[in-house]
Design brief:
This protein has three domains: 201 residues, Spore Coat Polysaccharide Biosynthesis Protein SpsA, Chain A (Alpha-Beta Complex), CATH 3.90.550.10; 72 residues, no CATH class; 242 residues, 3-Layer(aba) Sandwich (Rossmann fold), CATH 3.40.50. Helices cover 44% and strands 18% of the residues. The strands form three sheets. A seven-stranded mixed β-sheet has the order 10-9-8-11-12-14-13, sandwiched between helices. The longest helix has 20 residues.
């Protein structure tokens, strides 16, 4: 997520002028240092990395505030991504209004595809996280709206009031506490709804209730915060009324919303009035049965609310499955999909991933009829000159790309893919003489039936296939490379023949539809494992000679990663 934030800031900075970006690593145990350092070395954006032991967001922001040289500080989270024009709008505001007290709040919205979830839409409308619905104008907002997901203020004023209170160790109202002190010091907070940041933070009811517990304990320290009622008989009556309604097989939307709101408020109340030793987040005591039921139901509904998977050719599904497994192993969250058209891997990755797709065109031809992931950012560009800074994406994939380009262009494309990859690059496609011979036999069958060759097959025959060793040699200077055989030649030809014949075509589509649903639903691990195993059998156990080769580059590694279940199992 952080690399996506930096990538967007780099694009914004080009248009809005000089910007210094300070990243504070609050004791993370991942590869943040390496990723940020690589990005900074390859980007024109001025990036400073500060590292500290885990002390919480208030302390982290104070470290950044102390280092800042600019007269204005804009606060963003690592999961809040600026939309076009955000930096320019903050800069223009402070250029117009130079008084030390002037500050600007931008708008925060859910990033796609989170914005399509009913639960996330309700959370945005509820005001429980960012209460923009309470904002009635564009001037003189109170300090309670000082949301550090997208707010800018004069550096001098922030330092004059002492910065953030570092006794707030958790991410809960530490920004509002500062906002109230700034308001007391004369801050004039304006609102610019067109200065938008996209918040990429998947959550569910269980996580929201844990957050409400933390918020309830935090605001207990605010003497000016309105005291909530103590949990009492009114709340027990409301819980008793909502519980049977929530147990209905299909409760109305109004009941679901009332249940979620009650549970959030009750958790907040109980945390506020909890004993000092009762620190760990928990479900509310009042309405606990309803809470358990609502959490389970919302988790199921959240998993079910994903774009449906339309029919997909079986030959396409078998090529995506090992790529998905290899991408998920990285634990990343940003992915670049190059050359897949509208039939990319995004539909199977889930909402945790932010996917950018690049292709010469998104008008598919031939047999590419996979699912369109409408939340994916699509960009028409040349793979030989990708418009991204170095190390912009955790994972980059290029599925069935190299056989559609001239052999002379392949080294430049592979070099660009290596440049923009931070963790893992996966290049997958037909390679080697046995694979090309299989396509020549397929073309012969088309010609024997006096039918035209599909466009994709014509390009295969025109450009030829790269050799696995050729791909490995291009990737090896950038890290550890593994070549994995994918789909035996015999299995590939059998699937292609089955999909070309009318009776077996329908059976193949039914099998593909069932396997695709199980492959995406990782909430049902048995079905997911069974789907992977069956797809492995359909690929002929990946016995050599194979039709496709997966070239996997782990950037910067010199030895194999820890053992794991085979991506091709």
């Amino acid at each position: 997520m952080l690399l996506e934030t930096l990538r967007r800031l780099a694009g914004e900075a080009d248009a809005s002028g000089a910007v210094e970006v300070i990243v504070v690593d609050d004791g993370s145990d991942d590869d943040t240092r390496e990723a940020v350092s690589a990005f900074a070395a390859a980007s024109e954006l001025e990036v400073t990395l500060i590292e500290q032991e885990n002390q919480g967001p208030a302390a982290a922001r104070n470290r950044g505030l102390a280092r800042a040289r600019a007269p204005v500080c804009l606060f963003l989270g690592d999961d809040t991504w600026p939309r076009d024009g955000l930096l320019a709008r903050h800069r223009a505001f402070h250029a117009r209004r130079t008084a030390p007290q002037d500050a600007l709040l931008g708008r925060v919205v859910w990033a796609p595809p989170l914005d399509s979830s009913p639960f996330m839409r309700w959370l945005e409308a509820s005001g429980l996280q960012f209460d923009y619905h309470e904002v009635s104008g564009r001037e003189r907002l109170g300090g309670r709206h000082f949301y550090t997901a997208n707010v800018s203020a004069k550096t001098g004023l922030l330092r004059a009031v002492g910065g953030f209170d570092e006794t707030f160790r958790r991410a809960a109202v530490e920004d509002i506490e500062l906002g109230l002190r700034l308001e007391a010091a004369g801050m004039r907070l304006a609102y610019e709804p067109e200065a938008v940041a996209e918040h990429y933070h998947p959550t569910d009811l269980a996580a929201l209730l844990r957050r409400m517990w933390v918020v309830g304990q935090a605001v207990e320290r605010f003497p000016e915060w309105p005291r909530p009622r103590r949990p009492g008989w009114r709340h027990r009556v409301k819980s008793a009324a909502l519980t049977p309604l929530g147990a209905l097989p299909h409760p109305p939307e109004s009941v679901r919303h009332a249940t979620w709101r009650f549970l959030c408020h009750e958790t907040f109340r109980e945390a506020f009035w909890a004993d000092a030793e009762d620190q760990e987040p928990r479900l509310p005591r009042v309405g606990r049965r309803m809470a358990r039921m609502a959490v389970r139901r919302q988790a199921v509904e959240g998993a079910a609310h994903r774009p449906p998977l339309p029919a997909i050719p079986l030959n396409q599904l078998v090529r995506f499955e090992p790529v998905l497994a290899l991408a998920r192993q990285t634990g990343g969250s940003t992915l670049l999909d190059v050359g897949s058209g509208s039939a990319g891997v995004a539909a199977w990755l889930g909402p945790r991933w932010s996917v950018t797709a690049v292709d010469a065109s998104f008008e598919d031809y031939g047999g590419a009829a996979g699912p369109r992931a409408d939340a994916v950012r699509r960009l028409v560009a040349d793979a030989r000159a990708l418009p991204f800074p170095a190390r912009s994406f955790d994972v980059c994939v290029a599925v069935d790309l190299l056989e559609h380009v001239r052999a002379a262009d392949r080294p430049a494309i592979l070099a660009e893919l290596c440049r923009v990859t931070a963790r893992r690059l996966i290049v997958a496609g037909p390679a080697g003489a046995p694979a090309f011979a299989a396509d020549e036999r397929l073309a012969h069958r088309y010609r024997r039936r006096a039918g035209p060759l599909p466009g994709w097959l014509e390009e295969h025959l025109e450009h030829g296939f790269p050799e696995p060793a050729e791909i490995e040699a291009a990737l090896r200077p950038h890290g550890l490379v593994r070549l994995i055989g994918n789909e035996s030649v015999g299995a590939h030809e059998w699937i292609m023949r089955a999909e070309a014949r009318r009776p077996s075509h329908a059976v193949a589509r039914l099998v593909s539809t069932a396997l695709a649903a199980s492959l995406r639903d990782r909430g049902r691990p048995r079905a997911h494992r069974a789907a992977r195993a069956l797809l492995g059998l359909l690929r002929g156990g990946d016995r050599p000679p194979t039709y496709r080769t997966l070239a996997v580059l782990d950037v910067g590694l010199t030895r194999a990663p820890p053992p794991h279940t085979s991506a091709c199992a």
